[in-house]
Amino acid sequence: MSELGSVSPISLPTRRQRTVFGPLHETLFRSLWVAAVVSYTGTWMQNVGAGWLMTSLTMSPLMVGLVQAASSIAVFLVVLPAGAVADVVDRRKLLLLTQLWMVLAAAALGVLTIAGAVTPTLLLLFTFLMGFGAVLNDPAWQAITPEIVSRENFTAGIALNSAGFNVARAVGPALGGLVIFAAGSGLAFLLNAVSFFGVIYFLLRWKRAPGRTSITTGHMLETMLDGFRHMRGSGTMHAVLVRTAVFSVSAGALLALLPLLSHAFGCEGYGLMLGIFGVGSLAGAAILSFLRHMMSADALVASATSVLALATYAAGRRPGFWAFALIMLVAGAAWIQILASLNVCAQTMSPHVMRARAISMYLLVLQGGFAGGAALWGAIAERIGLQRSLQYAALALLLGIAATVWFRLHPLAVEPNTIGMD
Fold it and tell me: What gap in Å lies between CA 243 and CA 363, rounded to an integer?
């Protein structure tokens, strides 16, 4: 692999660059994208292993729901400081630190699992530690996108990042299910630890270009307060954050309770269902550009939310294997339509000097909503059963569409006119 350098903005994009695959013709972006897909695949194997291991330790819906909550709850503790730090320190060094943290956490959980020493509490603890590293990582990770792709390919780069995540979502769970079936969850955790090394290698080789360094002065608390002041005065941010909150709290119910819904199909069936969800996400991403030309962001999110609500309701009916697979396929397609629309808005809702802090606020709401929703719907299912819990989650998704009236989305409200200058 050649030494990685910087991307020079091109004033006049070529026909190749205007396509959705344009960023893959840029060496820097392509190198990180491939490494990221491998890492995402390991993460999905970890998710399958953790969810299935908990069902092996206890069949409590609350404890199973807490697995997803534990992976996201760190967002409440550190995502805002993480965004401020990402605007203050060298993002490359910060990412190296967070990647190594996740390697150690995944490896330790793998060793403990193979040794038979894992309890439900320990599983939740290490899931939390993995989530802690991921939360520290995410604002800096998303904020470097303009540094590794040219301005002309910025929007396509965001779309390809989502596509890469969903390639891994399609492959990782199915692969994880097979690994767990053959050798247990411990090996899945160890393979996840190994999967981070591609990204680490990229970061070690990456030479950040002069002029693309982060802010190096200012007190972190003041930096965070600047972010809050900006958020308070930005109607665009209000819309993105409110819509994200309304979606995430209810949308996470299906995935949080999926280990129990698919338990009758075995660990490989659980992994396959997550994989089918990922295939649906890929299909949804493939038609996303076409749909955006046909309808506004608000109409697209509202339509996809309605489809996801119907899929959530249908999943609660405990259908057979093939019907359930179809439901997960449709749910995945709807899921990516919503998340991709919100993510584009979040990436461009603030000027470049506020990018990491704005993204950290978006991640706080998104991941916090998933974490709170997973715990909430797990607790509700514990009391009233899986079917009624998912019915209420579907109803909440439909009611949340009303937020469109007061909080409208405006993709590219802040043009990336100085992409790559932070």
Answer: 13
User: Is 3.40.30.10 the CATH classification of the domain at 23-406?
Assistant: no
Burial (0-12, 13-18, 19+ Cβ within 10 Å), 132: buried
Reported as a single tens digit per residue, the pLDDT across 372-386 is 888 888 889 888 888
Distance CA 362, CA 9 (A): 27
Type of residue at 317: R
End-to-end CA distance of the chain: 27
CA 104/CA 5 separation, integer angstroms: 28
3-state secondary structure of 397: helix
Cα angle at 49 between 47 and 53, to 5 degrees? 120
Identify the sign of the CA torsion 356, 357, 360, 365: negative
Closest by CA to 349, choosing from 235, 215, 204, is 235
Q: Which residue has the tokens 């193979």?
A: 114
Q: How far is CA 32 from the centre of its chain?
A: 17
Cβ contact 337:304 at 8 Å: yes
Distance CA 89, CA 214 (A): 6
- Kindly list the domain boundaries of the chain, sorted by start residue: 23-406
Segment 298-307 mean pLDDT: 88
Q: How many CB atoms are closer than 10 A to CB 144?
A: 25
